[in-house]
Amino acid sequence: xxxxxxxxxxxxxxxxxxxxGSDIKVENFVSSGVPVLNGSNVSSIKLLEEQFRYVTKxxxxxxxxxxxxxxDIVITxxxxxxxxxxxxxxxxxxxxxxSQSQFRVRLKRELVDPAFFVYxxxxxxxxxx
Length: 129
Known about the structure:
globular, two-stranded antiparallel sheet, 24% strand, 17% helix, 4-stranded antiparallel beta sheet, 4 helices, Adenine-n6-DNA-methyltransferase TaqI, Chain A, domain 2
């Protein structure tokens, strides 16, 4: 490994997958509550918050590991691969449910800024690595 590079595992605090596909059914969606992320929300460096579907707080609690919070990074692993965004500290909501096509990464914020981490993977070098 080259000098100055850090292994991702050294700065990652936690990684978690979204809920199993059948865990969120159409009938679970409500008009307000905890927003559920999809690919359109993670197509930019910073989370896009124009459009959401919602589940109740009670339903969201059942997805413990699939809850993303401010400072977390959301990455798609199915569909449009390579989408990566971070949830800024001034996001509209404190928490979100990630979809079954995404996973969440929580970094050791004392070691790295999530915005910088995500920005790097939007560069040609970051995409190559």
